[in-house]
Amino acid sequence: MAHAPAPDGPAIAVSDLRMRYGDKEVLSGLDLTVEPGGVTALLGPNGAGKTTTVEILEGFRARSGGEVEVFGLDPEHGDERWRAKMGIVLQEWNDNGKWRVRDLLAHFADYYRPYSDPWEADGLLELVGLAGEAKQRVQTLSGGQRRRLDVAAGIVGRPSLLFLDEPTTGFDPHARREFHELIHRLTDMEGVTVLLTTHDLDEAEKLADRILILAGGRIIADGSPDALARAAATSAEVKWMQDGRRQVHATDDATGFVRKLLAADDGAVRDLEVHSANLEDAYLTLVERFESGEAEAAVDRFRKEVSR
Description:
Layout: E1 12-21, E2 24-34, E3 39-43, H1 50-58, E4 65-70, H2 80-83, E5 86-89, H3 101-112, H4 121-128, H5 143-155, E6 161-165, H6 173-189, E7 193-198, H7 201-207, E8 210-215, E9 218-223, H8 225-232, E10 236-242, E11 245-251, H9 254-263, E12 269-276, H10 279-291, H11 295-305
Parallel strand pairs: 3-7, 3-8, 5-6, 6-7
Antiparallel strand pairs: 1-2, 1-4, 8-9, 10-11, 10-12
Helix pairs in contact: 3-4, 4-5, 5-6, 10-11
């Protein structure tokens, strides 16, 4: 039995989502829509509300206010058939170490059979690149292999929507590249919609079709990696040495400024450098100021930098 078709419309629809823990407001009117297909990355500093948002979408946390629908249903009232449409890959889990890889996936698949047509273990292991480790115990897998198994466990029920939480923390570059290739195969070949939560901008730029940046309880930037990068790259810093002194000038027109500088130069300008602001610069500044307690100022500055 396959899943019932997902309803027409967005996979995720959120309006005016609010969440309070005592006197602390974590989410303050968050609006979010995710259409089926592709990878959407939800970024933000620690404490920005990423985990809270995802737990609400998954149906594991009751919200304080607002409207939320995932596949047309409120997560607070989703049943087992609704839950079977979702896969969840946590940042880490350490259970089931004594199970053999194939047996564990076959066991998980049995839970989905009343609601979907789950993957057969051998086909799933082939998809995630673990066919050669089918008979190994989970505790003997390398870090990269274990992460592949995490994904396999998350998609064994053939979900329409996959939640990934900090998926490549601790990976070496090779393991990270292989994992990215696996996620692209899932979206391209299986049509899975992926919501990735991370604080790693580099990973989001490599994996995602769309980046959402959450801070101050709301989405403060939304666009493709290229679009956000172009929006942030509007200012530049020009540095040079002149008469033995280091000079620094911020400008929105680096080319024009350098032309004027050199036109008036009598040979005293040396070690000229131009550094264009980019999305990474803006995002890292946001994270640094947000986590140092300057949340409101950090959000205001970031929004100005990506909307000039």
